[in-house]
Design goal:
Blueprint lengths: L1 E6 L6 E6 L2 E5 L5 H7 L7 E5 L5 H4 L2 H6 L4 E3 L1 H6 L7 E3 L4 E3 L2 E7 L8 E7 L5 E5 L14 E5 L4 H9 L5 H10 L3 H9 L8 E5 L10 H9 L3 E3 L4 E3 L6
Parallel strand pairs: 3-4, 4-5, 5-6, 10-11, 11-12, 12-13
Antiparallel strand pairs: 1-2, 1-14, 2-3, 7-8, 8-9, 9-10
The structure holds zinc ion (2 copies).
The site of one zinc ion has 4 residues, from loops.
InterPro entries: Metallo-B-lactamas, RibonucZ/Hydroxyglut_hydro, WalJ/YycJ-like
Keywords: Hydrolase
Protein name: MBL fold metallo-hydrolase
Length: about 240
């Protein structure tokens, strides 16, 4: 698999996941012009767009994406919140397939009606990826996952420090605690997760104020898995060599 990060963070999220020559757009939370430019105006082989929830940093371009002829997959709650009605809109209640991909939506926790994460499996290469963002924890554990694309939003100590110094408004605090993944919670999640098949962890949606430079090292040290922070780059996801 290959991952192209178009944008990651609270000001916008969009990723292109490619496997066996076909691609899925994950989120479309930046201007459509920007998506087009970053994809070199090439939408060939894009099978669809998966949306986790309705916040604009994930869904900003959804009407353009639909209008451009790309099928979009999301929960009913997300579709309702975005007031979408389009023949290319699909409600993702259960497992579905897009060509070589089998996609299983799963519930996450966020301050919206019906947020989702996605387990993505390539039937040809047998690679499995978990995509989860905007959630303070994961309810589920998944077997034989090769790659995690997972939110690592903030550090509790850094957040408290920012509140004390007035960088972050106190009212933001509870919202963050209940709706985004904190680094120590993520480490805790991985501690009790079987990572024997895991080859790469990609940390996404870092907060610009409340994250710190050592996130990559902390997750890599805690898990022993090659870890990268998403920031507009191309990432090779490979089973071998490792
Ligand atoms: Zn977000
Ligand atoms: Zn959100």
């Amino acid at each position: 698999m290959k991952l192209k990060v178009l944008a990651s963070g609270s000001s916008g999220n969009a990723y292109l996941l490619t496997s066996s020559g076909r691609s899925i757009l994950l989120e479309c939370g930046i201007r459509f012009e920007e998506i087009k430019k970053k994809l070199n105006f090439n939408f060939d082989n894009i099978l669809g767009c998966l949306l986790t929830h309705e916040h604009m940093d994930h869904a900003k371009s959804v009407t353009n994406v639909l209008a451009h002829g790309i099928d979009c997959y999301m929960s009913q709650g997300t579709a309702d919140a975005l007031q979408l009605n389009h023949h290319r809109l699909h409600i993702a209640n259960e497992q579905f397939t897009l060509d070589n991909f089998t996609i299983m939506p799963f519930k996450v926790e966020h301050d919206v009606k019906e947020p989702l994460g996605f387990l993505i499996y390539d039937n040809i290469t047998k690679e499995k990826l978990v995509f989860a963002t905007d959630t303070p924890y994961l309810i589920y554990r998944f077997n034989n996952v090769n790659y995690y694309m997972i939110e690592c939003n903030y550090d509790r100590d850094k957040l408290e420090e920012n509140i004390e110094t007035g960088v972050i408004n106190h009212s933001m605090r509870n919202r963050l605690l209940n709706s985004h993944f904190e680094i120590n919670s993520l480490i805790e999640y991985f501690r009790f997760t079987d990572l024997k098949s895991c080859r790469k962890i990609v940390l996404i949606h870092l907060s610009s104020n409340n994250s710190s430079d050592d996130f990559q090292a902390r997750i890599q040290n805690a898990t022993g898995i090659d870890t990268e922070i998403a920031w507009n780059q191309n990432i090779e996801l490979r089973l071998y060599p490792f």
